[in-house]
Design a protein that fits this description.
alpha+beta; 3 domains; Pseudouridine synthase
């Protein structure tokens, strides 16, 4: 294993049957690194892309949260669940056999844009210092305030007809959107009831599930650090400025630097600074050509 400090982003393909924290714990064991955290929970029944930030990359988790995610889901129409998915108590809804693709697709489009969602009781949202799922396990239900979330696109890609119909959908959304709530709300809009039957996350920011690695494959590597991506993947959505050796030294010391016109023709607001070698050095705020570092990541 490399003698330098372990740091980077691991694009993990999480299997069903374990929590996101279980996955992080196994990654910590494989790398022998205590500093590791995931960027966005996947439920135990869910699979797919779980970015895990390791070492200094843990400072960039919030930047992942700001990026869009894409989910491939199956919604079961004609059933309801107290957890809004297959983990809870499932009860019959209304007969969904009359639904067709055109009707389901039209109903789905009502969820595209800036919408209001009420967080489910079985979620990690906090109420008076406790997670909602903890209260739910004790049989409590509390009032939750709707939250504004953004769904960029929602596409129906298949429908299996039946008394309980299965709608296969692909959804791209922003921070805080629950696919379980989309499933349940879609079912209510169609008059049948609905629950989330299956979910996998296929994209997260610049990361794609096709390039993710499974836990067994990671454990089998002679050097697991070869599976890590650079820190910059967490902030690729920010404008980039490239700096020379003198400015790099200043940024490493936490000092502000002036950017040349060639370096910052369009740079303003929050930006990322890269060295001549392409390494991410710092994040900072650019105003009037001055780069003021807010996070120094080199070292």
């Amino acid at each position: 294993m490399s003698a330098s400090p372990t740091r980077g982003v691991l694009p993990l393909d999480k299997p069903a049957g374990i929590t996101s924290f279980d996955a992080v714990r196994e990654v910590r064991r494989i790398f022998g690194e205590k500093r590791a955290g995931h960027a966005g929970t996947l439920d135990p029944t869910a699979t797919g892309l779980l970015p895990i930030c390791i070492g200094r990359a843990t400072r960039l988790v919030d930047y992942f949260h700001a990026q869009p995610k894409t989910y491939h889901c199956v919604v079961r129409l004609g059933e309801r669940s107290d957890t809004l998915d297959t983990e809870g108590v499932i009860t019959p809804g209304n007969d969904a056999s009359s639904l067709d693709a055109a009707r389901v697709s039209a109903a789905l489009q009502a969820f595209v844009g800036d919408i209001q969602q009420t967080p489910p009781m079985h979620s990690a949202v906090r109420h008076d210092g406790r997670h909602l799922y903890e209260l739910a396990r004790e049989g409590q239900e509390v009032d939750r305030q709707p939250r504004s979330v953004t769904i960029t696109s929602a596409e129906l890609i298949g429908l299996r007809a039946g008394t309980v119909a299965e709608a296969e959908i692909v959804v791209t959304c922003g921070k805080g959107a629950y696919m379980r709530v989309v499933a349940a709300d879609l079912g209510e809009a169609l008059g049948t009831g609905g629950l989330l039957g299956w979910l996998t996350r296929t994209r997260y920011g610049p990361l794609d599930l096709a390039s993710a690695i499974t836990l067994p494959a990671l454990a089998a590597l002679d050097d697991p650090t070869t599976a890590l991506l650079p820190l910059s993947v967490a902030v690729e959505h920010l404008p980039r400025v490239d700096i020379g050796p003198a400015a790099e030294l200043q940024l490493r010391r936490g000092q502000s630097v002036w950017l040349t016109r060639a370096q910052q023709p369009n740079a303003r607001g929050e930006c990322r600074a890269h060295s001549a070698a392409g390494d991410l050095i710092a994040l900072g705020d650019v105003q009037g050509g001055l780069f003021r570092p807010t996070k120094v990541l080199a070292g």
